[in-house]
Amino acid sequence: ALALHPAARTQPSRGRITVACVDGEWHALPARLLAEVLRIRGWHVDYLGAQVPAPHLIAHLHRTGPDAVALSSSIPTRLPVAHATITACQAVGTPVMVGGAAFGPGGRYARLLGA
Predict the structure, then answer these.
(1) How far is 13 from 23, CA to CA, in rounded Å?
(2) Residue 47 in domain
(3) To 10 degrees, what angle do helices 79-91 and 54-64 make?
(4) Which residues constitute the domain of residue 54?
(5) Domain presence at residue 97
(6) d(CA 100, CA 80)
(7) Does 98 have pLDDT greater than 60?
(8) Which of 2-6, 66-70, 110-114 has the lowest mean pLDDT?
(9) What is the predicted pLDDT for the residue at 115?
(10) Would residue 102 count as lying in a domain?
(11) What is the rounded distance in angstroms from the CA atom of residue 13 to the CA atom of residue 41?
């Protein structure tokens, strides 16, 4: 198995980002891949995993103060939950990026939800 050793990195962090799946989303692999790519590219990443309730995410944002949140969802029926989570994150001043099939072709639903 391969592992990325944080001590091996010599460049400073580009910032901090939280990566999570919206509540009810169990398909965590895309979010995990994003987290690892960001980590390799110099970001400090907090990966929260699948099915993250909005209150848990907001508490994490208050504790860690990331520069942004990346939310993932592949299930369109979770869009109302995604919208509530996006709104809650923005209410505490954290920008939100979203990805996944739930957000439609070209991310059209992402824009409608304010991400």
Answers:
(1) 29
(2) yes
(3) 30
(4) 14-112
(5) yes
(6) 15
(7) yes
(8) 2-6
(9) 78
(10) yes
(11) 9
* Overall residue count recorded for the chain in this entry: 115
Q: How many domains does the chain have?
A: 1
The structure tokens listed for 42 are: 């110099």
Average pLDDT for residues 36-42, to the nearest whole number? 95
- Identify whether the C-beta of residue 84 lies closer than 8 Å to the C-beta of residue 113: no
Question: What sign does the CA torsion over 16, 99, 76, 88 have?
Answer: positive
3 pLDDT above the threshold of 70: no
Helix (H) or strand (E) holding 23: none
Q: Work out the average pLDDT over 47-64.
A: 97
Minimal CA–CA distance to 22: which of 92, 77, 59? 77
- DSSP 8-state class, residue 12: P
Q: What is the pLDDT of residue 10?
A: 54
Tokens of 13: 């962090």
Please report, for the domain that includes residue 21, its CATH number: 3.40.50.280
CA dist 69 and 87 (Å) reads 12
